[in-house]
Amino acid sequence: GLGRLAACFLDSMATLNLPAWGYGLRYRYGLFKQRIAKEGQEEIAEDWLEKFSPWEIVRHDVVYPVRFFGHVEILPDGRRKSAGGEVLNALAYDVPIPGYKTKNAISLRLWDAKASAEDFNLFQFNDGQYESAAQLHSRAQQICAVLYPGDATEEGKLLRLKQQFFLCSASLQDIIFRFKERKADRVSGKWSEFPSKVAVQMNDTHPTLAIPELMRLLMDEEGLGWDEAWDVTNKTVAYTNHTVLPEALEKWSQSVMRKLLPRQMEIIEEIDKRFREMVISTRKDMEGKLDSMSVLDNSPQKPVVRMANLCVVSAHTVNGVAELHSNILKEELFADYVSIWPKKFQNKTNGITPRRWLRFCNPELSEIVTKWLKTDQWTSNLDLLTGLRKFADDEKLHAEWAAAKLASKKRLAKHVLDATGVTIDPTSLFDIQIKRIHEYKRQLMNILGAVYRYKKLKEMSAEEKQKVTPRTVMVGGKAFATYTNAKRIVKLVNDVGAVVNNDPDVNKYLKVVFIPNYNVSVAEVLIPGSELSQHISTAGMEASGTSNMKFSLNGCVIIGTLDGANVEIREEVGEDNFFLFGAKADQVAGLRKDRENGLFKPDPRFEEAKQYIRSGTFGTYDYTPLLDSLEGNSGFGRGDYFLVGYDFPSYIDAQARVDEAYKDKKRWIKMSILNTAGSGKFSSDRTIDQYAKEIWGITANPVP
């Protein structure tokens, strides 16, 4: 998710001629390639680098040392310095990001981890001790092997922390080197200029270690005192929060941090100490809140460093990624900090690049938009799409729009046949949910709805079936390798599809398909061909979502909850052109409380759908542990935390409204046109322009 967003942001930064670039790690095997087998999802290593990547340029001259473990040395002048441990090298690979219709190209600089020749023990190797001779080389390879390595083990946690620090340290050393290179005549005392030349945006909590590492580089390497280094760091660093899910707000064990990064841990402890002192001396009224606000949680059972708190305490600006999400940050998650720093918090609603997500992926619709707007300027000024509104009832446009959609649906049907062997009917309603598989995104509600639809179809007479809106339900997304319930959901979708698609009584009216190995290339085929798109997360849990914007831009109608950017999409496209259902964010806590108190009464349709799965209709696999997450009133993995049961009846009712609306082709096409026409706000150009003006303080710098 963060990667797809970052790709759009880089495209916009280049197109807007901004002096900005991205830093990341050069993962050899990516996340994973998803294969669907009898047992469900299988993960295999992604081979994208095996064939060599033509876009990257290796920079053998750009190498920085990154130190892990070791100890802190105190120098004769009292300064402190990291020493010992193991030192790996970060080698830069640059991926150019060209702007659209501009001479500007920016860079995505990706770091690879290497050990040096000195770290290769020739004596041991010649003695036949091959593994131990190249120990550091093999540890270096682990760092950039896999994105999000499993962190259930202590080794996995340590590797993730190593990855995070490796990215932060290499990137900051590079930034400081460039700053000094451009200021070759720099004398001590000019570091106060650094924040006017450099802005660092931390994309979620993963790069939080940039804070203590920048402090270390400024104090230990450049000789600044604490106050000056803190002033520079605070004015340089800003933080984007991307989630309110507690498990995603990183907390690292203090002992692991102290062992891996002893000097950085000292700095974190000092930041925490000074923050506490500041609150006690300036805000006596907040003293009772300090335990939850501090950077260090010193609970004796499990002392941790709270990365989100470190970000909020240290950054000059904190932003959420949709209006609803930013309000939740201010009113709930970070409410206590708001009373100390009311001006620190902003909203930057996410966006997507119209170049990739309409112009490139949907050529037929793009040509129609250009023809009716009499300009192709919409590709870099997406607000022009509102010009389509005045043609929303035009029959000529309707005919062209429908033809473009059919062409995209046929292309999608071919992809489904090639990828799954299932034949789908391009005249049926294409209903798609593609996103990471997660319980809060509620793919389980989608498949329960499909199961309920299948059961009702089985009970109908031939005449009744004639009145049904034929539908193809498609679900795609990767489940994290160690996330058991998510993997059960993938298996359930596949099992339901295997039965439904081979049932001659029903398969003219319903098909259920799991699209394997969801990624950007797959999305470029699915999104243009989609007619209904499901964005059905529990309200208050999806920070923004961006696939909702991609679907809407391509004239797809959304069925969704008032969550993330859905709220703003519905405002922009019009309430009549969005199928709304479900609890609102401010009701969720109360509904969970009601559930705990035994007040929830399930809808009979919900019980019917669950029972149909339990009956073995879809095979012998035991779905009890998955369905049990929806049962009971409380307890770990129980009590329907994501409110599937509560929202199910209004979801089924909304789907019935979809079926009715789709029968009226004229009404449906008008809704489709108005979705595209209302998508201007969701260009990443608008998002990045706001970051540039309101957080980074930078202006366009076009290549002459």
Automatic annotation (TrEMBL):
InterPro entries: Glycg_phsphrylas, Glyco_trans_35, Pyridoxal_P_attach_site. GO terms for cellular component: cytoplasm. The keyword Glycosyltransferase applies. It catalyses: [(1->4)-alpha-D-glucosyl](n) + phosphate = [(1->4)-alpha-D-glucosyl](n-1) + alpha-D-glucose 1-phosphate. Keywords: Allosteric enzyme, Carbohydrate metabolism, Cytoplasm, Glycosyltransferase, Pyridoxal phosphate, Transferase. CDD domains: GT35_Glycogen_Phosphorylase. It is an enzyme of class 2 (transferase). The keyword Heme does not apply. It is found in: Cytoplasm. Its EC number is 2.4.1.1. Its cofactor is pyridoxal 5'-phosphate. Pfam families: Phosphorylase. GO terms for biological process: glycogen catabolic process. The modification N6-(pyridoxal phosphate)lysine is found at residue 550. Belongs to the glycogen phosphorylase family. PANTHER family: ALPHA-GLUCAN PHOSPHORYLASE 2, CYTOSOLIC, GLYCOGEN PHOSPHORYLASE. Phosphorylase is an important allosteric enzyme in carbohydrate metabolism. Enzymes from different sources differ in their regulatory mechanisms and in their natural substrates. However, all known phosphorylases share catalytic and structural properties. This is Alpha-1,4 glucan phosphorylase. The lineage of its organism: Eukaryota, Viridiplantae, Streptophyta, Embryophyta, Tracheophyta.
